[in-house]
Amino acid sequence: MKHQFVLIIHLLAASVWVGGHLFLSFRLLPEALKKKEASIIINFKNKFEPVGMPALVILLLTGIIMAYDFGVPVSDWFSFGSPIERLVSLKLSLLLLTFILAINAQLFVFPKLTSDKLNPVAFQIIAVTMVGVTMLILGSFFRLGGV
Length: 147
Fold this sequence. Notes:
Blueprint: H1 2-35, H2 38-69, H3 83-109, H4 119-140
Helix pairs in contact: 1-2, 1-4, 3-4
């Protein structure tokens, strides 16, 4: 029962994280590029971060709990041994990539963001969205016993 509760919390957090980035990618980014208005992206970022970042932390914590539930302790992370270990390792690798992209966004992309320089933020948004969707798809393979 505990696993099911943790899974539900994980899925809700994934809905916030991935859903927010899909909305940003498919609705707001095209508008910002068309109008050449960085403020559209900046306004979304300022409103999404207080919800999105806690969702990402919840994903990390619930993911770790579920990895242990599946019998994959820290010592087996990145071992890629069994199908479940491969799945956990892939998701952790993508999580690491998400953190790298987040650091890049905070330190390099957003400080230089202007309406004339939207391409770097567009790349950033698309990359984070693709990583999030990939993690969501990989998560569905736990029901099948891994990859």
